[in-house]
Amino acid sequence: MSAPQFTPEQARFILGLTLPAMKIEHETTKRVIQAIPVHQGDYRPDAVSKTASELAWHIVVAEKRFFNTPKAGAFDVNPIPKPESAKDSAGIVAWFDETFGESIEKLQQASADELTKIVDFRGIFQLPAVAFLQIGLNHTIHHRGQLSMYLRPMGAKVPSIYGESYDATQERMAREAKAT
Known about the structure:
The protein is mostly helical and 180 residues long. Helix 1 packs parallel to helix 5, helix 2 packs parallel to helix 3 and helix 2 packs antiparallel against helix 5. The N and C termini lie far apart (63 Å). 29% of the residues are buried.
């Protein structure tokens, strides 16, 4: 099966549709990672599962890889070392914000040739670079869902993701009751 080809106009259209979604999902992912209690980063629901910190780091590093693909011209699988500042959920979120902003700037400057270039994903498939943005979003959303399932068992509250969560509803109702 050959890779689909996009015209420059189609690639720009896809980028224009995807950038706002990337920004919305970024804020949602940040809320989920921020909900990890700093002293609970080593929580894992099962011995074969990643810890909460490992899963959060995987989410933000993989997103950077996917979102940087158009400007890099390839899917970069080189290790991204975890900086000392990202030792807990607060540090991971700070790094995530910084690198996300850089990725958005690069994407806004991407040329049509960069967006339409066919990129190989680990020998599994080849797609125009702009398609890696949606794959990156799907990957983030998938793992964010996993991470959100860690929160309540570790004693944390689940933030609103797509609509108000149970915990957010309880907080709102408590505020409303207090105000009356």
